[in-house]
Design a protein that fits this description.
Length: 180
């Protein structure tokens, strides 16, 4: 699925003690710490798994710090975000947001995926109910009917479509010669 273009701040995130402690640990203003958390969610949506909140295991602390526009030592950012529960590193799996499903962005991403799967199932069921026919086809096509195409009310048009297309027209009755 293409990445979502939506990140939502949870209500009260600006005053959340975890965020305030993150700001203190990084020696940054609260607004900057808030920005880091929002950019972290955005990175997951753009490059990671929007359902689990995980980044590909090839991502490094430096990659995350660069995306979040962090100017200090990347390890300091990662350690502070780990300590506050915004980020974890799982050996062999990489970085992820442990409470991703509890964020507004994570819930929205999951709900959107469920809706996509539901619609896909509906479309598949509709296609199988139509047995491959388009809803605007009235019956057998001219290719499937030996007597040729029919009008809407089922009457034959009297032509076999495609049988004389490459031949010249029949001569008129009476020989078609010129009378002199």
């Amino acid at each position: 699925m293409p990445a979502l273009n939506f990140v939502a701040a949870d209500d009260g995130l600006e005053e959340d003690p975890k965020l305030l402690t993150l700001a203190r640990l990084l020696r940054e203003p609260r607004s900057t710490a808030f920005w880091y958390v929002m950019r972290w969610q955005r990175l997951i949506l753009q490059k990671g798994n929007h359902l689990s909140g995980a980044l590909p295991k090839s991502y490094t602390a430096e990659d995350i710090a660069t995306f979040l526009d962090f100017k200090g030592d990347p390890r300091r950012l990662i350690d502070a975000m780990k300590r506050q529960g915004y980020l974890v590193f799982k050996k062999g799996r990489g970085f992820c947001y442990p409470a991703w499903g509890d964020t507004t962005t994570g819930r929205y991403a999951c709900r959107r995926e469920e809706e996509r799967l539901r619609k896909e199932t509906e479309r598949r069921n509709r296609r199988s109910a139509n047995a491959g026919r388009s809803s605007d086809v009235l019956g057998l096509s001219a290719d499937e009917r030996p007597e040729g195409p029919r009008t809407v009310d089922g009457q034959s048009t009297g032509r076999k479509q495609g049988s004389t297309e490459d031949l010249p027209p029949d001569p008129p009755p009476g020989g078609g010669g010129l009378d002199r």
